[in-house]
């Protein structure tokens, strides 16, 4: 099965383009793909059939673009406003007949964390995803849908599509946590490195803590989102799919726990860095003080013999020999004593 040529030609028509990329559409019937790549204007036609589930993906749409979709699906203007607004908090809002979801996909590249915002409108038989940019790989989402066992997807429902989306989002959050964990290991190696590059440690520690704070801010609300979805009285998730969402919820807890553990680890590393820096400073001061004591001996002896008054050996070769012997013997004695006590 699939769409006929007249349904797929819309991508060549600029009038069908919404946002920075053409919309992606797909329809399922009985768990099998019924059509793909059909125009947005046909969404309502497919939804009129009680045994069809549809999906629509929009990338960086404008407000006027979403109004077209809102008219097709009967979306609330407040939810539409949230979908096009950036930096909304991760949340799940319920409206009459559908729900609005907002999540974040973190990506760590060369130690830098970038958040990609993804919104979704979820009804009983429709899922509309709204991406603010191309950072979220929608092709990976499609592959996950195609490769995951359908479970309770024999009945017309968008819950299975939502499960695949949330599962992918949480997996990407776990991947980001692992990348930050690797970064923490590298910072730990720098802390205990003999070179002890203080500026590099400070810079990377600050960046790591900043990234962990940003990731925690978007990961913690996911617990509330999954808890709301799993509430039986709301009847958002069909019973056959509850174990699937429970598994996603467990992964969400892992993200939060791992983030908190990494934050504690970074705090411990910073305390260790300060302690090591203090110990290194003490070692330096100990060595400097020891050398200062050794240098003080010849200074004292030569100062004594530099007096302009008669003394034993004054203006004689024997006086020079005596002062030299005193300097060498006392300096070597102090050096040996400090070396034995590990002060040098």
From TrEMBL:
Cross-referenced InterPro entries: CorA_cytoplasmic_dom, CorA_TM1_TM2, MgTranspt_CorA/ZnTranspt_ZntB
Transmembrane segments: 288-306, 318-338
Topology in the lipid bilayer: Multi-pass membrane protein
Chain spans, region Disordered: 1-26
Keyword field: Cell membrane, Membrane, Transmembrane, Transmembrane helix, Transport
Bias kind Acidic residues: ranges: 1-13
Keyword Chloroplast: no
Pfam families per the UniProt record, alphabetical: CorA (PF01544)
Molecular-function annotations in GO: cobalt ion binding; cobalt ion transmembrane transporter activity; magnesium ion binding; magnesium ion transmembrane transporter activity
Compartments in which it is found: Cell membrane
Entry-linked SUPFAM superfamilies: CorA soluble domain-like, Magnesium transport protein CorA, transmembrane region
CC per GO annotation: plasma membrane
Family: Belongs to the CorA metal ion transporter (MIT) (TC 1.A.35) family.
This protein's name: Magnesium transporter
Originating organism: Actinomadura coerulea
Top-level taxonomy: Bacteria, Bacillati, Actinomycetota, Actinomycetes, Streptosporangiales
């Amino acid at each position: 099965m699939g769409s006929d040529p007249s349904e797929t030609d819309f991508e060549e028509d600029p009038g069908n383009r919404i946002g920075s990329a053409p919309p992606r559409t797909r329809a399922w019937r009985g768990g099998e793909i019924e059509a793909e790549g059909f125009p947005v204007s046909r969404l309502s036609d497919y939804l009129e059939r009680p045994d069809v589930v549809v999906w629509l993906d929009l990338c960086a749409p404008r407000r006027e673009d979403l109004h077209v979709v809102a008219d097709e699906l009967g979306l609330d203007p407040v939810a539409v406003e949230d979908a096009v607004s950036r930096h909304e908090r991760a949340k799940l809002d319920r409206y009459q007949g559908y729900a609005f979801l907002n999540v974040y996909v973190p990506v760590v590249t060369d130690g830098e964390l970038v958040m990609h915002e993804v919104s979704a409108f979820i009804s009983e038989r429709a899922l509309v995803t709204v991406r603010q940019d191309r950072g979220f790989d929608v092709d990976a989402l499609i592959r996950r849908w195609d490769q995951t066992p359908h479970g309770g997807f024999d009945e017309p429902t968008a819950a299975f599509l939502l499960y695949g989306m949330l599962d992918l989002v949480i997996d990407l959050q776990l991947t980001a946590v692992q990348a930050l964990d690797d970064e923490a290991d590298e910072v730990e190696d720098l802390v205990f490195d003999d070179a002890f590059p203080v500026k590099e440690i400070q810079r990377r520690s600050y960046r790591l803590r900043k990234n962990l704070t940003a990731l925690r801010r978007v990961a913690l609300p996911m617990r509330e989102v999954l808890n709301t979805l799993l509430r039986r009285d709301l009847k958002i998730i069909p019973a056959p799919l509850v174990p699937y969402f429970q598994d996603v919820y467990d992964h969400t807890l892992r993200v939060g726990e791992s983030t908190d553990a990494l934050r504690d680890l970074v705090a411990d590393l910073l305390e260790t860095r300060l302690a090591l820096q203090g110990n290194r400073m003490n070692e330096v001061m100990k060595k400097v003080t020891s050398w200062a004591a050794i240098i003080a001996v010849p200074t004292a002896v030569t100062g004594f013999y530099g007096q302009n008054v008669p003394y034993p050996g004054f203006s004689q070769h024997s006086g020079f020999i005596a002062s030299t012997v005193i300097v060498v013997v006392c300096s070597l004695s102090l050096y040996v004593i400090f070396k034995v006590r590990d002060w040098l």
